[in-house]
Amino acid sequence: MPDIFGDLFTLSGFFTLLMLLLLQAVLGFDNLLYIAIESKRTGEHASKVRRWGIGLAMLFRIILLIVIVSLFGLLAEPLFALDIPRIIDGEFTLQSLVTLVGGSFIIYTAIKEIHHLLTIDEVGGHHKKEKKSVTQAILLIVTMNVVFSFDSILSAMAIANVKEVIDGVTETRYQVTIMTIAILASGVLMILMADYVADFLQKNRMYEVLGLFILFLVGVLLVTEGAHLAHMHIFTFEILAMSKSSFYLVVGVLIISDIISTSFQKRLWAQREQELRKGGKKVSSADH
User: Fold this and answer.
1) In a 3-state reduction of DSSP, which class is residue 202?
2) How far apart, in whole angstroms, are the C-alpha atoms of residue 195 and residue 151?
3) How far apart are the first and last CA of the chain?
């Protein structure tokens, strides 16, 4: 049996795999939300786009995993520095640049979609010029998955590693096989769930707005994280990364408030409909 599969058949390896699957499920939510929103622009090809996009994205995620594990030190190496006194300064690495650009693009996408919902003449309608080709949509999904992958892979590497003593020196060995299995499993789950998420958003348009605001927060999370990695200061103020706990708290409050608001609106509509029916009966009685 090859050495690379040895970790799979140990108790610690099994628990590590369970932890990674849970991690992929939690961190994969924002990715799945982006895929569902982006794929709808292709119309009848949306389901095909989601399957191909997720499949290719998982392939590139595994390749990225191998590259990051092999060249982990280079990610933290500064590429260039920016210093405009009292305006902006920072030292940018590859990881910080990818995170900053990706987060900015997600914020742009969320704002564009929210603007689109506010300007369409008919709810549920789409501008023809907004429709994307299958290739374009798949390319965007795969590209944005690379952005989401950095956070996911680095978090996985913090969990899936073992310390080994070689010639008196302690070295860290990353369990690439276990991480690859977790990525493949999460990809299969995302393919199975993508259509359900997209259908749910299509049938419950009120939750599409909630999804877009969550996507906007994901962009803010990535931008602040990228700026923090670059030790960026704007007008002498240090940019701090938005914590994951703050992110999930805000998302939780948004979801709860949206559910309560929707429930209250349905009660108001039902009450209004009942009043209109009673008013109609009174008018009919008066005519007789």
Assistant:
1) helix
2) 25
3) 90
Tell me the CB-side half-sphere exposure of residue 141, using CA atoms within 13 A. 35
The SS3 of residue 45 is helix
78 forms bridges with which residues in the sheet? 93
Each residue's pLDDT tens digit, 123-173: 444 444 456 788 888 888 888 887 777 777 877 776 777 766 666 666 667
Which residue is listed with tokens 């920016």? 82
CB 241 within 8 A of CB 125: no
Residue 219 in tokens: 């962009």
Cα dist from 118 to 107, 122, 208, 221, whole Å? 17, 10, 12, 25
Question: How many Å is the Cα radius of gyration of the chain?
Answer: 24
Angstrom distance (rounded) from CA 162 to CA 166? 12
- How many whole angstroms separate alpha carbon 19 and alpha carbon 25? 10
Question: Are 163 and 172 in contact, with CB atoms under 8 Å apart?
Answer: yes
Q: Which has the closest alpha carbon to 105: 136, 139, 79, 143? A: 143
Q: What is the DSSP letter of 28?
A: H
Is this prediction's pTM over 0.70?
no
Tokens coding 237: 């103020």
- The 10s digit of each residue's pLDDT in 213-261 is 888 888 888 899 889 989 999 998 999 988 878 888 888 898 898 888 8
